[in-house]
Amino acid sequence: MSVKPVFGNGVFPFGTHVYREPCLDLDGVLRDLPLLKQYGFNMIKIQEHWSADERREGECDFSRVEQVLRRADELDLGVYLGLTMEQAPAWVWRKFPDCHFVYSDGRRHNQPTQYTIPMDGKPGPCWDHPGVREAAARFIGELARRLGKYKNIWAWNTFQEIGFWPNTAGKLGFCYCPHTLARFREWLREKYGTLEALNATWQINYGNWDEVEPPCREEPLAPFIDWRYFMDDVYLARQLAFKTKALKDKDPFQRPVFSHADTPRVGSGAEWRWARVGDFFGTSNYPKWNNGHPWDDPVASEAGALLNEIWEEMMLCTDLARGNNGRDRALWGAEFQGGPISTSLHIGRKPTPNDLRVWVLAGLACGMTGISFWNHRVERFWKEGNGFGLLDPLGDSSERMEAVSRIGKAIQKHGEFFSQAQPPRAQVALLVNEDTYHFFQASNGDVIHHYRYNMRGWYARLWRMGIAVDFLDAEEVIAGELAHYQAAILTMPLSLDGDYFAHLAKFVEAGGTLIAEACPGRWDKYGWTTLEQMVDGGEEVFGARQRELAMVSEPGAERRWMPDERHFGEFDPPKPLTGCGEMAGREARANFYLQSLKPTTGEAILMNGDDVVGVRNRFGAGQGILIGAFLGFGAKAYRESDAGTDGFLEALLRKAGVEGDCCGQLLRRRREWRGREAWFFVNPTPQAVTERVSKDGFSKARDLLGEGLIEESADAISVRVEGTNLACVLLSP
Questions:
Q1: What's the pTM?
Q2: Within a 10 A sphere around the Cβ of 68, how many other Cβ atoms?
Q3: Rounded to whole angstroms, how far apart are CA atoms 418 and 432?
Q4: Domains of the chain
Q5: Beta-bridge mates of residue 339
Q6: Which of helix, strand or coil describes residue 5?
Q7: Burial status of residue 722 (CB atoms within 10 A of its CB: 0-12, 13-18, 19 or more)
Q8: Which of 294, 344, 332 is nearest to 82 (CA)?
Q9: Environment class of residue 217 by beta-carbon count within 10 Å: exposed (0-12), middle (13-18) or buried (19+)?
Q10: What is the pLDDT of residues 523-550, one digit of tens each?
Q11: Do 461 and 646 contact (CB within 8 A), yes or no?
Q12: Cα–Cα distance between 330 and 3 in angstroms, integer?
C-alpha cells in the first residue's frame, strides 16, 4: 500500500508559513514570494483569521488573503490555508454573551482583547453554543466558496495545534457551560443507556439525568474518566468535524482537509480521534523548544543535545503522529522549526544548517509526506518576536535558508517517492490507552508525568536497539489491528478495563507476545481495586499471581520521580534484578514499584534474591510476559546503574522473534514504495562511523544529499555518517 498524496503524484509539499494577521508588511510578503520560489519551495502557508475577515457580521473581506493567493498562483506556488476560528470577532462575544468557556467554579474564560499571539486566540468560544457554531459554519462556508475558486489551494487546515490552552482550570479543564453539560449528558445516555447503568458504573446515586454533572474539584473520582474522555476525545473531534463539513460542503474542488497537534502527548489516545476526522493529520516540530526531561541524566555536550532532538523531538513525535494518523494517509510536519525559539526575553540558539538537515531527514525517516516551516521570516510581535524565521528581518539569504533550500530541492527530485512511500509496519506495538491516561491524570500527585515518562523511556530503549515501534490505540486493538504485530508492550498498566484486556489475551492466544510491566489491572478503568490485584484474565495470560508489592528508591542520592517517604524505611533500597532460566546472565533494574509474583503456570525469568519478579507463560500459541517493575524510567536516568536493562529486553524480544534493524553501529529506518526503498542511517554515537551494508538485492543506490554513500559494489554499499547525524540512501531495482 502507498500513501494517497495530498497534491499530485509527483509533488512533495515543501513550504513555509508567510502570512497571518496582524501583518505589518503585506507588500514585503508579496515581494518575498518569488524569492521563496527561487529557493525551491513549492508551497506557502496562509493563516486566515475570523476576527480579521468578518469584522462586522455578514460582511466578509478576504481581499488581503486573496492578494497572497493570486501572487502565489502566478508563481505556481501551492497554498496550505489554515483557519483561525478561535480568534472570533468582537461582535460574536456581544451577540452571544453566553458562548464563553466556563471553568468548574462558574467563572467565564473572558478575553475580549484577542490577539493571534499567543496561542492563536485559543481557547475561543465554546462550540457547543448553537448560535456561535452556526455563525462559524456560515463564515467557513463563505470562505470555502469564495477562496475555493483558487485552484492553487492544496489543503485546508481546520485547527492548528489543537487544544483548549491557555487554561487555568487544572486537571478538570473546560467546559462547564450549560450547552456543554447538556451534550455531556446526551453522550452519557448514549454510552450507558440507562441512569441505573451509569450509577452502577460510577457507584453514585443520581435520581434523574438532569442531576448528572462532572466533578468540579480536583479529586480522583470515577466520573473524571468519562468527563475528560468527553472533552478531549469527543468535544474536540466534534468541533473539527463541523469545520471540516463546512469546508467540504462549499469547496468547489473538494480539497483535502486536515488539522494538526502540537508536540504529541505521549500516552494519550485523543489524537487518534482528532486525526480520523480529516483526510490526514500533522504535527508541530520545534526540536530546540525542549531538550530532554528534568528527570533525565544531564545533557553534557552539544552532541548529546542533538541526539535528544533526533530521537525524541523528531522521531518519537513523528512516530506517534504517524500512529494516530493511521496507515496509508499523508503525514505533514505542519509547523517545522525554521529559526531560533523566542519566548519573551528568552532567546534560543539559532539552528545550524546541520540541525535543519538532521531534523528533516529524521522526519522523513518516520514517514513525513510534507513539510511546512514556521516561518519564512522572523515573528514581529512581543512574546515570539525575532524568533522562528528561516530569514532574518532584513536580507534575502541566511545559512538556514540555504540549507533548507538544498534539502528541499533534493527531496523534490524524488517527490513522487517521498509523497507516497511509507515505513513498513513495525514488529512491536506500544499500547496507548486513553482511559489509563485519564486515570493517571486524575490521580494525586500529577502521576500522569510518571506514566508519560515511563512510556517515553520504553521508546528510547527500543530506538537505540534499532527496533521501530508503532503506537496502537485501544480502539485499534479492539478492531483487531494488533494481529499485525509480533509483540505488544503494556507500560505502567495499573488501570485496565477487563473487556479491553480480553482482546490482548486473544492476541497472545493467536501467537503474539504481550509484555506487561508491574501490576496490570491493580485498578479497573474507573479506579476500583480488583480483589486479585490483577485484571480479570491476567493470571491465565501471565501464569502468575501477585505476592507482594513494594516501592523502590531511586539509585541516586537526589530525588527525581519518587515522592517523599512518609516515614523512614518506607521505600526499599534500589534493586538489581537478575535473570534466570532462559534469561540467566541478564540483569535489569527495578524502578518505582517492585512486584513479587507467585508463578502458577509461568516460568521465572527475573529474580530479586529468592523472589520471582518476572515470569514468562505460554498461553495458546503465544506468550505473556510480566515484569514486576517499571523499566522505562531508567532508559534516560541513572544510566550507569541501568546498563543491563537494554540487554535484558533485547534478549527477551529476540526470543519473541523481534530484532533491531542495525547495520553495525548505525540504526536503520526504511520507507518503501513500488519496489523502491529509502534507507535512513542514524549514527547515535558522537564519532563518525562507516559501515558496509548489503544492498538486499537492489541494483542501484543513490545518496539523497550526495554525502553519505562513499562506495557501491554489485551487492553492497559503504555508508559514512558523521557523529550524531543521519544519511539517506535511495535504492531501486
A1: 0.97
A2: 22
A3: 28
A4: 14-167+253-418 (3.20.20.80), 428-654 (3.40.50.880), 662-732 (2.60.40.1180)
A5: none
A6: coil
A7: middle
A8: 332
A9: exposed
A10: 999 999 988 899 999 999 999 999 999 9
A11: yes
A12: 6
